[in-house]
């Protein structure tokens, strides 16, 4: 499904979803998104004319974070969007800030520190974000384009080669753990290392 591919490639902060879609039922789409662990954390607000109690219960049971019925006030919708984003970002922030330990390698997101055998390794902000991207999704293969979108956020003109150069430097700085960053020929890179 094209929409799912796009969601995985460029995940939005939030999805506003109508139940009555042309190609697929919105409830079915919500169920698919919430059962796919790559994108299940994207919050969904159902925005629909279906306003019976059973419609609302089904939508929320399938994983929607909120359910807004038409007609609705624009101000109320904005307030609900902000509330859902606050809830999900709080959850994500606490999850994201947990220390990650892989044998002698310790990553401390809150302090922006990486230690090997309790000795701090100096990383640039991009190298640190690259490392976090990999260790949070072990075994997942990231294409260069995905890495550029997630780490550089396409903030300026950068090229695939930029990713390769940063990976090379990161591998060198991580010493023996540099081997955990595997090249997947013709595709990109992945992290393959046993966690403690």
Provide an overview of this structure.
Helix content is 43%, strand content 18%. With 196 residues, the protein is an alpha+beta fold. The two termini are 37 Å apart. The model has no long low-confidence stretch (mean pLDDT 86).
Keywords:
single chain, alpha+beta, three-stranded parallel beta sheet
Shape: elongated
Through-space gap between termini: 37 Å
Unreliable runs: none
Helix content: 40-55%
Radius of gyration based on Cα positions = 20 Å
Summarize the topology:
Elements: H1 2-9, E1 15-17, H2 26-35, E2 44-48, H3 53-61, E3 66-69, H4 74-96, E4 100-102, E5 105-108, E6 113-116, E7 119-121, H5 125-136, E8 142-143, H6 144-152, H7 160-173, E9 181-184, E10 188-191
Parallel strand pairs: 1-2, 2-3
Antiparallel strand pairs: 4-5, 5-6, 6-7, 8-10, 9-10
Helix pairs in contact: 5-6, 5-7
Concise summary:
This protein is α+β, with helices and mostly antiparallel strands and 196 residues long.
